Amino acid sequence: MKESTASNKTGVAPPNLAWRDYALLALKGGPRSNSQYTGAARLRSCTNPVGIRSSHAVAACKDLLETELEGIRAAGTWKTERVITSKQAVEIRVKGQSSNILNFCSNNYLGLSSHPEVVQAGKDALDQYGAGLSSVRFICGTQDIHVELEHKIAKFHGRDDAILYASCFDANAGLFEILLTPEDAVLSDELNHASIIDGIRLCKARKFRYKHKNLEDLESKLQESQNCRQRLIVTDGVFSMDGNVAPLREICDLADKYDAMVFIDECHATGFFGATGRGTEEHFGLATGRVDIINSTLGKALGGAAGGYTTGPQELISLLRQRARPYLFSNSVPPPVVACASKVFDLLFGSAGYAEKVQANTNRFRSQMTDAGFTIAGENHPICPVMLGDARLASDFADEMLERGIYVIGFSYPVVPKGKARIRVQISASHSFDEIDRTVEAFKTVGKKLGVIN
Ligand code: PLP
Q1: 98 assigned to active site
Q2: Which residues does a 6 A CB cutoff place in the pocket of ligand 1?
Q3: Mutation pick for ligand 1 pocket among 169, 175, 239, 293 (CB with most ligand atoms within 8 Å)
Q4: 0.90 cut: is pTM over it?
Q5: What integer pLDDT is reported at residue 317 of this predicted model?
Q6: Is residue 411 helix, strand or coil?
Q7: Which of 240, 244, 285, 237 is nearest to 262 (CA)?
Q8: Can 240 be counted among the known catalytic residues?
Q9: 137 neighbors 166 (Cβ within 8 angstroms)
Q10: How crowded is residue 240: how many other Cβ atoms within 10 Å of its Cβ?
Q11: Chain segment 132-187, per-residue pLDDT in tens
Q12: φ/ψ bin of 87: left (φ > 0), alpha (ψ from -120 to 50), beta (otherwise)
């Protein structure tokens, strides 16, 4: 049924056109030239009776967006999302595939996101504490389980205290502007995660970007910033695109020499890297507390639901609770998410076996792939980038693997540098040796077919 074409208080419908049709036309980019309309219809934005606003500004914006989208398609960097119809696990169901797929591309490093005890903890919390708090933490959004989880995080890392956020992206967005003023300096690895880059943008400290893992460059920037009140060195513990590790011992030595502090983002380390999963500090055999501040995520190894945190000195955590904007102005982490992560920490406190298993699996995959003639980047981390170089090859390789029942993803520019396309395989503690061997066999078959190996 057609709606009225009469004008309302805020807009004018073009003559002989129903409001809904006009809005649809506008959304399709139709009324852009507007030559069929006159006067007010051309000049004003329009609002239909149910509030759908359309205007020349929107039409022009849509043109710009479409040009941008076209550019992404033309560059061959369009990202499509495969739709999973099961839980996150080693075996998943993917829409369009008739049988189960072996998953080698999630951050589920410990395989705990579908662990029965973790799932049960989430269900119990839903019953006991409800779906959510409808509040930020400082108004009426703190439950006992939030506080307990923060204590467990601090205990796991051997730090004074911890503060929870809805994500590690938020933790990275919240930290730097609270800690650093224009009198201070931040020295950041050029390949740090996007959320660190954004967080640093928000702070007013002097900014120094040092070459990736380059200690000489870092030292020269430490010298340059020597007159600043505080200096904070900022690095990913593990860099997710290459599976390589920050030279943390040397970074800490430089920090001592120049009286600087060290921050690491441990999203790709907490729970599984280092002998008991304590992360990069432990991996290098550094004393607990050698690094001053750690941010990490609950959305990868630690249950995989969502959430992030900062852990470090009491004064810092207390100040973040008072001032950090993503903490103050965003909803509390939902109780089931808190309970799942909390259960993961209980499991980790109870056993170091998870970290051992993921390392054994990683060794097996890396050595077999290298023996087969593939180049695997990184430093014996469960992120195993299979280097292919060409973007199209990486994408075709991933498609061929999916046809063989193995889910891996090709990464190409702009996510990684041009000419460095790769398939990023991620190993989990929950993969069996048999699944790893089958995956290596599939890599060999596809590698020969596509001329990557002989
Ligand atoms: N830091 C690093 C190094 C990451 O890889 C990610 C996630 O991809 C984040 C931060 C953001 O974590 P979250 O998903 O909890 O926002």
Answers
A1: no
A2: 167-169, 172, 193, 195, 236, 240, 265, 267-268, 297, 299, 308
A3: 169
A4: no
A5: 98
A6: strand
A7: 237
A8: yes
A9: no
A10: 20
A11: 999 999 999 999 999 999 999 999 999 999 999 999 999 999 999 999 999 999 99
A12: beta
C-alpha distances out from residue 351 to 114, 276, 286, 359, 425, Å: 18, 8, 21, 15, 26
Distance between CA atoms of residues 86 and 350, nearest Å: 28
Give the E-state strand segments of 199-312 in sequence order: 206-210, 231-236, 238-239, 244-245, 261-265, 293-297, 308-312
What angle do the packed helices 353-372 and 433-449 form, to 10 degrees?
30
How far is C-alpha 180 from the chain's CA centre? 24
Question: What DSSP assignment string belongs to 233-260?
Answer: EEEESEETTTTEE--HHHHHHHHHHHT-
Distance 274 CA to ligand 1 centre (A): 19
Q: Where are the beta strands (DSSP E) in 324-429?
A: 383-389, 406-407, 409-411, 421-426
Q: What's the rounded Cα separation, in Å, for the pair 115 and 394?
A: 32
Pocket test for ligand 1, best of 106, 175, 188, 195 (most atoms within 8 A of CB): 195
**45 counts as catalytic:** no
Give the pLDDT confidence score for residue 75 in this predicted structure: 80
- The Cα-based distances of 177 to 143, 181, 212, 318 in angstroms read 27, 7, 23, 15
Percent of the chain with pLDDT over 90: 82
How big is the CA angle at 110 (ends 106 and 115), to the nearest 5 degrees? 100
Q: At what angle do helices 314-323 and 168-179 cross, to 10 degrees?
A: 100
Specify the pLDDT at position 48. 57
Residue 1, pLDDT > 80, answer no
- Considering only the C-alpha atoms of the chain, give the largest distance between any 2 of them, rounded to a whole number of Å: 77
Specify burial of residue 20 (Cβ count, 10 A radius: 0-12, 13-18, 19+). Answer: middle
Ligand 1 atom closest to Cα of residue 170: 16
* CA dist., res. 292 & res. 126, Å (int): 35
Residue pair 136/322 in contact by the 8 Å Cβ criterion: no
Residue 325 C-beta-side C-alpha neighbours within 13 Å: 11
What are φ and ψ of residue 95, in 5° steps? -55, 135
Q: Listing from the earlier edge strand, what are the strands of the sheet with 409-411? A: 383-389, 421-426, 409-411
Q: What is the band of 414 on the pLDDT scale with cuts at 50, 70, 90?
A: confident
Q: At 175, phi and psi to the nearest 5?
A: -75, -55
In the structure, what pLDDT confidence band is assigned to residue 55 with cuts at 50, 70 and 90? confident
Mean pLDDT of the chain: 90
Across 292-400, the runs of DSSP E, i.e. the strands, are 293-297, 308-312, 383-389
Residue identified by tokens 């195993």 is 384
